[in-house]
Amino acid sequence: MADDLFKALADPTRRIILDELASRSGQTLFEICSRLAMKHQLGISRQGVSQHLAVLEAAGLVDARREGRYKFHTLNTAPLRQIAERWPPPDPSGPESTP
Amino acid sequence: MKIHLTQVFVDDQAKALHFYTEILGFVTKHDVPVGEKDRWLTVVSPEAPDGTELLLEPLGHPAARTYRDALVADGIPLAQFAVDDVRAEYERLRGLGVRFTQEPLEMGPVTTAVFDDTCGNLIQIATQPR
Predict the structure, then answer these.
(1) Can you tell me the distance from the alpha carbon of A67 to that of B73, in angstroms, rounded to the nearest whole number?
(2) Which of A68, A98, A99, B109 has a Cα-to-Cα distance from A37 of 20 to 30 A?
(3) pLDDT at residue A94 is higher than 90
(4) Predicted structure pTM score
(5) Domain of B93?
(6) Cα atoms in the 13 Å half-sphere on the side-chain side of B13
(7) What mean pLDDT is reported for chain A?
(8) Distance, CA of A20 to CA of A35 (rounded, Å)
(9) In the predicted structure, residue A92 carries a pLDDT above the cut 60
(10) Contact across the interface for A31 and B75, Cβ inside 8 Å
(11) Which residue among A35, A39, A69 places its CB closest to the CB of B69?
(12) Domain holding B57: CATH number?
């Protein structure tokens, strides 16, 4: 189940896309492409960005919603919980602290 | 050589004329009947009455709709207009009920925003650094 998630997160460009969607929810493909080009100097084709978004969607990290004639992308961090649940942080009231 | 005229395909010329003049603030330059119902309809900026004309062209060709709808779905603007202050214009147009698909965004020295012209196109406004 988590393979898609780790594959999606492994790519630095996809992590930047997630950062940008975290900074503003509901972006068109055009806005995402503009942000990558202008803010991150990433000259990726529109098709390339589309493919990255498809990988992120498959992993459940991005939701694409149609609204009338437009299509907006939003970040969904819910799947990241699987990572935290798989490797939970050590319990602060663990065995060392209990007598 | 200079750019004298450029065009957008519009669903309805009367509706387009209203939006481009009453909402955006352009002025009519030419309005000439062509054929049965179509018009040669151009607008210009009041700041440059002899500048580039924008033709509000009827959506006659079936391929034009396919092309335009595909661009809109991905949020790609068809034309860019220069404004003094994108944020002020964004607030003004939103107050008039204009739908934006991209809020004002600083991208390096340029600030841009994208709105729906209600006639089938997305338009970008931009403020260039002085």
Answers:
(1) 9
(2) A68
(3) no
(4) 0.89
(5) 5-127
(6) 21
(7) 91
(8) 8
(9) yes
(10) yes
(11) A69
(12) 3.10.180.10
Residue B23 is classified by DSSP as I
For an interface test with A, give the residue of B67, B69, B76, B78 to mutate (most A CBs within 10 A): B76
For residue B107, the chain A residues in CB contact (below 8 A) are 34-35, 38-39
Cβ contacts of A71 on chain B, cutoff 8 Å = 73-75
Q: What is the pLDDT, as a whole number, of residue A99?
A: 53
Across chain B, mean pLDDT equals: 95
**The CATH number fitting domain A2-83, selected from 1.10.1740.10, 2.60.40.10, 1.10.10.10, 3.40.30.110:** 1.10.10.10
Q: What is the pLDDT of residues A19-52, one digit of tens each?
A: 999 999 999 999 999 999 989 989 899 999 999 9
A46 and B CB contact within 8 Å: yes
Angstrom distance (rounded) from CA A77 to CA B17:
44
ipTM: 0.87
Residue B108: pLDDT above 90? no
With an 8 Å Cβ cutoff, are B69 and A29 in contact?
no
Distance from C-alpha of B21 to C-alpha of B127, rounded to nearest angstrom? 20
Looking at the DSSP bridge assignments, the partners of residue B38 are: B34
Min mean pLDDT across A6-20, A75-89, B14-28 is at: A75-89
Shortest Cα–Cα distance, A12 to chain B (Å):
20
Short-list A17, A14, A34, CA closest to B76: A34
